[in-house]
Amino acid sequence: MKYIGELSLFGKVGNATMSYTNDGKNYHIKIKGGGSGIVAKLTKHKRYVYESIGRVENGILIPDQYIGRELSNDYNKTKTYLFDYKNSKTVVTQQSIKRKEISDFNIMSMKYDISHKIVKKKKVKTLKKIYQDDMVSMFFNKRLTLLAMKKSETRVVYAVGSKDTENGMVVKLIKTDGAKYTYSIRIKKDYLSGGSEDATFILDANNILYETKLAGIMFFGDARVRRLR
Q1: For residues 130 and 54, is the Cβ–Cβ distance under 8 A?
Q2: How many CB atoms are located within 10 Å of the residue 132 CB?
Q3: What is the pLDDT of residue 218?
Q4: Pair 52, 59: CB distance under 8 Å
């Protein structure tokens, strides 16, 4: 499957590709994306990779790993979530590798000598609970039974990957159009305070993401990611 990213004032600003394999026993979802044109230059050609890997039981996705990567020419950050179901905890490991420029003044040549060194960091923490979904699997997991929701019905879902998603998101079915189901999604704290919708997304009849849209990105307009095929 291939997706494309757009901002309403600029048109195409990025590309995303997604692969989803499910043999009935194991699944693997991988999303890769990055900016194009002016956005690529502004973000120093950063690329993002998100993966959800796990098992399938009675058609339900059971995540074992969720991995998020941020990549550029001189920086690599990887955050891995390991689901420990036996001990009801999630181990989060964050590792980064950065190529740092060092400038030393050379008194003999009366100029600065430029060199580089690699800086590595690692941090591990434990979440004392298990989340049934991650930020990728939630858009594919039939366990949530989102397709069975009635119009205007709301449901709170939780997904590992960020503090906001871990604290809960309120999903609401806005409309159905043939084999497409459109939902709004808000961070729970924004919903309780009466805040506006954070985003909308569309699922197809197979419970696979078709499109997602985020409104009001600073002065750029609306951000939209849609499936091409």
Answers
A1: no
A2: 18
A3: 40
A4: no
